[in-house]
Amino acid sequence: MVNARFINRKGWYLLIAFIVAALMLLAIVNVALAAENSIRLINTGVGNLRITSVSVGLFDTGVGNAIIDVPGTPTTATITWTGRSPNGDDTITVDITDSNGNSTGAKDYTAFVSEEAFANCCASNHYVYVAYLPEAAFSPGLNTLVISGLTMVENHGATVAVTSFSSTFENRLISRFWGLDGFHSRWTGVYGPYSQLVCQEFEVARNDRDLRFIMYVSGVENETRPNSIWYQIGSGPVPTTDIVNIGVEISEASDGSGNFPFYSKANDNGEAEYDVFEDSLLIPAGSTWVCFQIESYDLPGQIGVSALWHGLVTSLSLPPDPPTAVTLSSVSAAATSLWGSVLLLLLTAVVGVTVLMLLFNRRLAKT
Q1: Cα(133)–Cα(320) distance, rounded to whole angstroms?
Q2: Start-to-end C-alpha separation, the chain
Q3: What does the angle CA 88 – CA 94 – CA 95 come to, to the nearest 5 degrees?
Q4: How far apart are CA 101 and CA 183, in angstroms?
């Protein structure tokens, strides 16, 4: 004869095991959905640092020429490029000539990280890549760059960014965000009509501070596509929903052209499909976060911009400290998400095992 108590106990164990498995699966799915193609923090640096960058559009030209003014001793250099193509292109050619006339010659650099999105749009995928450049190839002063070698159907453009140190620089927190986030007024869900919300948290301060920021957007067709930047500054809980029509609107490009913030040619060589917006914000005393979001909207006879947001750099002033040069430290969002999921899975497992033990002990006590 089968023991009814054993059947009940087994049923309880199976039910608890099912619940634990479901929670673990839910944790994995949630992390995967949150991390895919999102703009996220990739590295930070604190010290007497400045980050300078130069950007070129490559849509109508195979070669981008630019000059970058490096104010201090270079500590880190990167190049970011974007485009649209069935297969992408993870290698770019750069010729660097420093302020003393020393040239690296044209050399190929392969991305150490890449992002792909919108595989079902326009019969192509959209890509963004990042590669390191040798910081020793740059020197304080004017450095000349020749960027070429991309083979995508649409070569949107590229940005070279150099972080440099000097004991005369202000002590600052530099944060770099990177990813691939599309937005368009005619899209819905995770793809639009707005970009994702990107927020940065920081320690509270007694005095007002200065936050400089640079936003990088690619794929803008022309100057007729309406868009705005929205930002919000505050303390306490960080916003998790849209700040469009809630925060402060920036409706014009930072270069004084009078165009929308992103209008296809807001870069250093005036070529199409690569835009940069740069500005400064006052962070009031007591604030602990700032958030950014891009809006695409229609106007009569004008369709909202369709574009890709792939980068954000912020530089926050800090209280004076002894001069230090700190290379940007990696804060991989993928690693952050992975550790978060691992901790959540461990917590779920611990709860499940604890419940099982309690039920088992309770049954034993009754026997």
Answers
A1: 30
A2: 18
A3: 165
A4: 42
Task: Look at residues 123, 171, 164 and name the one whose alpha carbon lies nearest to residue 141.
Answer: 164
Backbone angles phi, psi at 335, to 5 degrees: -65, -40
- Tell me whether the omega of the peptide bond preceding residue 193 falls within 30 degrees of 0, making it cis: yes
The model's pTM is: 0.79
Question: Whose CA is closest to 137, among 175, 168, 106?
Answer: 106
Fold exhibited by the domain 39-331: Jelly Rolls (2.60.120)
139, 70 contact by CB (below 8 A) = yes
Q: Rounded to an integer, what distance in angstroms lies between the CA atom of residue 72 and that of residue 169?
A: 9
Q: What is the DSSP string of 43-61?
A: EEEEESEEEEEEEEE-SS-
Could you report the per-residue pLDDT of 149-181, keeping only the tens digit for each?
Answer: 999 999 999 999 999 999 999 999 999 999 999
Structural contact between residues 226 and 304, judged by C-beta atoms closer than 8 angstroms:
yes
Pair 264, 157: CB distance under 8 Å: no
Q: Per residue in 229-284, pLDDT tens? A: 999 999 999 999 999 999 999 999 999 999 999 999 999 999 999 999 999 999 99
Beta strands in the chain (DSSP E): 40-47, 49-57, 64-70, 73-85, 91-97, 103-110, 113-121, 124-133, 141-148, 154-165, 172-183, 198-201, 209-218, 227-234, 248-250, 274-283, 289-296, 307-317, 329-330
Domain parsing of the chain, residue ranges: 4-30+349-366, 39-331
Q: Do residues 259 and 266 lie in contact, with contact meaning Cβ atoms separated by under 8 Å?
A: yes
Q: 18, exposed or middle or buried, with CB in 10 Å at 0-12, 13-18, 19+? A: exposed
